[in-house]
Amino acid sequence: AGPGEAPGRARGSSPSAGPRGARGRPSPWSTRPPSGAAAPPGGGRGPEGPGPGAAAEGGGGGRAETLLDLSAKRVAETWAFEQVEERFSRVPEPVQKRIVFWSFPRSEREICMYSSLGCHPPEGERDSRVPFNRGLHLLQSGAVDRVLQVGFHLSGTVTEPAGPSEPERSFHVSISFDRCKITSVSCACDNRDIFYCAHVVALSLYRIRNARQVELRLPISETLSQMNRDQLQKFVQYLISAHHTEVLPTAQRLADEILLLGSEINRVHGAPDPTAGAGIEDANCWHLDEEQIQEQVRQLLSNGGYYGASKQLQSMFNKVREMLRMRDSNGARMLILMTEQFLEDPRLALWRQQGAGMTDKCRQLWDELGALWVCVVLNPHCKPEERALWLALLKKWNKLDVCPLEEGNYSFDVPGATAALQLPSVPSSAGARQTVFGRAIKAGELRWGDCHLQKILGSDCYGLGMKTGGDKLCFDPQGRPLWLGDPFPTACARVDALRSHGYPREALRLAAALGNTMRLQRRHQLESYKQQKKEILHKGSTSITNLEGWVGHPLDPIGCLCRTLLEPCRTDQEGLSLYPGTGRDVPRSVTGGGKEGVLVNPVTVPALARLEPGGWGPGRARAWGSSPDQPPSPIHRLPVLETVMPAGDILHQNPLDSMMANRFPRWFILGHLETRQCELASAMLTAAKGDPKWLHTVLGSIQQNIHSPALLFKLAQDACKTATPASAPPDATLLNISLELGLQVMRMTLNTMTWRRREMVRWLVSCATEIGVQALMNIMQNWYSLFTPIEATTIVAVTGTTPATLLRLNLAFGQRDELCARARAVALQCAMKDPQNCSLPALTLCEKDHAAFEAAYQIVLDSAAAAGMGHSHLFTVARYMEHRGLPLRAYKLATLAFSHLSIAFNQDTHPAVNDVLWACSLSHSLGKSQLSAIVPLIIQSVQCAPMLSDILRRWSLPPPGLAALSGRRHAAKPPAAPGLDKAPLCQLLEAAIAAYVSTTHSRLTHISPRHYSEFIEFLCKARETFLLAPDGHLQFGQFLDNLKQTYKGKKKLMLLVRERFG
Predict the structure, then answer these.
(1) How much is the pLDDT for 289?
(2) Confidence (pLDDT) at 50
């Protein structure tokens, strides 16, 4: 075979998969090539064209490129090399080399797109974590070495410099490419991500910038075809010798198959060549790791509760838009992979089962997903088979039960729920099941072939200077084009699709037409309003022309339109803007700046508010009416809360209103609107400072329209901070308003506790302190309507009487006594209402007043007698009484606690164990009478044998207090320990022995061999208690004999008993 023929070569299939045609056909609307993405997130040299190496090869430095290079460039972009070989029987070697040379990607912008998640990450120019930046740094530091290009395969070594704790490491990198796209990558590093690692970036940038320095060889099959048999055998043997540990098994297997007649390898003509490029039928798209994309999306969705996960998913959506803008087929491919993982989210089935709405973060992600699919389906130049494939997938997903509704709330899918929420004027179709993919499926029915639409997109001058002709709905009175072919959100989706697919000029023209349409529509609405003003005032209702809210719409029509209109005004310092010519000032004159100047007039007038008076009319376009007597209208409407006009009136609306659709508003936007409403209210309070009349007016509006306790509390805090500047006297009116807002928050959250409730109560007390003692006393007097008993006792009453508060108020002695008396009265009232939680705080607060203290103590006694307090609270109060030096009262409360206590035989670790031991120690120290009185209570309340024996041993010792007292008296003898054979301890001893016997039988009922050793230890403790009795030896022996006779079936256990006790 000649050098241009390769009959012995068969190409392997490309590792990439996906739709054919990574770039769409050239647009008939623009002669520019597809625009690239924005600047890379790295510093240094940004993404450029072929680079200095390629420029030098092609005749840079001002010289014209040769015809061979020009032809090779075009062929390398559009034809697979197999197609070249089929078309021409002989291709000279120099021509092959130039085609192979120009087949490698020439734009660093595309390398950046596939090696960084975000197009503009925060501090992207210095973010060393971005693979593109790291690869650029490796390239600039000379880390790329041994670069070799064999056909359509590039290989090299990238060396990572040594770190503080890591040695220097080298990684072998291999890249396959075809038609100016990287089709597969391989790197020895362990980095696994959805995009290329830094080493692949470094090698790619080296090839782009230093193309002339890279050693270039033809595909290996071309070189092999020039060898004779001896050379081929020597080549194979040297190759096996150099890599025998890796390739020897494979070489032997292939040799066996070749020597076997009739084997599959002998039936195929030629052999695969990985360096020969892709075949004609292979997909022509950039390498994209599908498994990594699926894994990363799955992991991010599983961490959906975290802010970083939503941010990363949003970055992946932005990457899809970037690919669409580059007209890269991987954009739709990546979106398919993400959608499949979104639908496999296990939370969807859970939300549907519970009938609950998804979280706001998830809802916004699903809305973005649906909007992206609308952009993909509305691709103006996609192939029909691609659109059919996308629509088939969308319809399949749309039928899934877990597919989220567009509202983000599964309760709308419950039978009967839709009918209850449906507006009378909304057609019945509005209640149909509308999923997040519904708009994309409907968008598949839209086409771009409308003659009027094509003229709008095709020229900046279309309609200028024309007056209204026969078709009144195509131009406004000034002759500017209108577009009424779609509802407004759908028309804006067309604009978004044009921007997303790299047609910014066409998007700008359509956006200008929509701006003209909106302005003319508002003018018609104003005229209609003036004509029907008397009728509307008579009915007392408002006419709704926009039942589908645009704010928070899933397609974001307002945001899309604004971005499209304002983006050309942005100056890009690096000259990488999507809009040529925007780096300079655009002339305002229509004739002074070419097409850019012509485009200024239709864009600037509707978009940048160069409007004649009253041009936008009333309603949602602005907050105040255009006529002096017109009432103000809210910017953000809630149609569900408004009066709906009769269905008959809708049929007679102006044709311009056909842009409106019928849907409920997006509820998740309410949180954002309420926050902005709060900011506005705070600004109004600040502006009205010093004017009591306006302050009360603003307060009334706030109380009427803001219903979120958190936002009201924030407003109260802001007002208090504004009213008490550091360098000026406080504003009393604004302080009172902040207190009133705080009181409203307390009333709203009294029965629905929030985690910020205690913070709110503390702030309210401090705010009342700033106002004065009367405000503090007022909230104490009305505590039952503002606070819970525990809040009023532990926060309000305590904080209001602290030394710091009294010092801050600077009160006279009489006022101090009055405030403290009011606080004690509040504490007593709270103790009566909630004795369990408020008794101890009330006692603490009333310590300095004997009458109040006695009243609080009596409340505790009454509550204990009426079973209003548990044993734990009674023990706590009893310990407090002992600490106050009132042991008899403590003993009284302890005896009451025993009446509410019950400790079973197996509750060795009962929470009240320490309290019981403390009560026994207290009664022991008080004397024999108290000891005798408490023993029956203990026997009745405690059935735990180890606990009873512990109490018995403690009581068998002298009381610690009396022993110390007797040690100071030289004449008296130390008090003797109570006798265990006399009352009251003999009763406790008998109870302890009986408890051990019953506990033993209970444990033996369900004992297992692994608990035998533990049971033997339990018997040892029981013997110690038995021995405390005068005839303990006999009782314990009889007890063991009874066990041996009763449980003689447990031979191993009884053997252990005999070994231990005889």
Answers:
(1) 84
(2) 42
Measure the CA–CA gap between 426 and 1060, rounded to whole angstroms.
Answer: 89
Find, among 524, 512, 513, 515, the residue nearest to 618 by Cα: 524
- Among candidates 855, 885, 889, which has minimal Cα distance to 874? 889
942 CA to centre of own chain: 53
Q: pLDDT of 481-501, one tens digit each?
A: 888 888 888 889 898 889 888
DSSP state, 271? E
In 10 A of CB 276, how many CB atoms?
27
Contact 6, 221 (CB under 8 A): yes
Stretches where the chain sits below pLDDT 70 are 1-62, 118-128, 304-308, 407-432, 463-472, 533-549, 551-552, 570-669, 959-982
Query: For residue 848, what are its two tokens?
Result: 């300095």
DSSP tag of 267: H
pLDDT at 466: 59
Beta bridge partners of 154: 149, 175
What pLDDT score was predicted for residue 256? Answer: 86
Strands (E) located in 773-929: none
- Torsion angle of the four alpha carbons 1047, 1050, 1056, 1059, in this order, in degrees rounded to the nearest 10: 60
Parallel, antiparallel, or unpaired: how do β-strands 153-160 and 169-178 relate? Answer: antiparallel
Tell me the C-alpha distance between 747 and 769, whole Å: 19
If you compute the radius of gyration of the chain from its CA atoms, what whole number of angstroms results? 43
Token readout for 44 is 């240094």
The model's pTM is 0.55
Specify the 3-state DSSP secondary structure of 101: helix
- Alpha carbons 493 and 233: distance in angstroms, whole number: 64
Query: Domain coordinates of the chain in residue numbers?
Result: 1-12+50-119+130-287, 290-413+426-443, 451-645, 870-1001, 1007-1061
| Tokens coding 272 | 């695969």
> What Cα–Cα distance (Å) separates residue 160 from each residue in 126, 145, 930?
19, 12, 83
Rounded distance, CA 10 to CA 270, Å?
A: 5
**Structure confidence by residue, pLDDT tens digits, 1031-1058:** 888 888 888 888 888 888 888 888 888 8
Going across the sheet that includes 181-187, the strands are: 181-187, 169-178, 153-160, 144-150, 215-217
Q: Are 879 and 890 in contact (CB under 8 A)?
A: yes
Output the six-digit token pair for 22. Answer: 């990574």
User: Residue 740: what pLDDT?
Assistant: 95
DSSP secondary structure string for all residues of 784-818: GGTS-HHHIIIIIIHHHTSHHHHHHHT--HHHHHH
- Distance CA(1053)–CA(1049), nearest Å, equals 9
Q: Which of 104, 144, 68, 504 is nearest to 275 (CA)?
A: 104
pLDDT tens digit sequence for 29-80: 433 334 333 333 344 444 444 444 444 444 445 578 889 989 888 988 888 8
The DSSP code sequence of 495-558 is HHHHHHTT-HHHHHHHHHHHHHHHHHHHHHHHHHHHHTHHHHHHHT----S--S-STT-TT-HH
- What does the pLDDT read at residue 190? 76
Q: How far apart are CA 261 and CA 266, in angstroms?
A: 7
3-state secondary structure 47-85: CCCCHHHHHHHCCCCCCCCCHHHHHHHHHHHHCCHHHHH
Distance, in Å, from the CA atom of 60 to the CA atom of 18, rounded to the nearest integer, reads: 36
**Tokens representing residue 808 in the block:** 């801050």
Name the DSSP letter for residue 210: T
Provide the sign of the torsion angle of the four alpha carbons 921, 923, 926, 927, taken in this order: negative
Q: How far is CA 570 from CA 30, 460, 504, 577, 911, in A?
A: 21, 20, 13, 9, 70
Measured between alpha carbons, how far is 199 from 132 in angstroms, rounded to an integer?
9
| Residue 588: partners with Cβ closer than 8 Å, 6 or more residues away | 597, 600
- In the three-class reduction of DSSP (H, G, I as helix; E, B as strand; rest coil), residue 711 is classed as helix
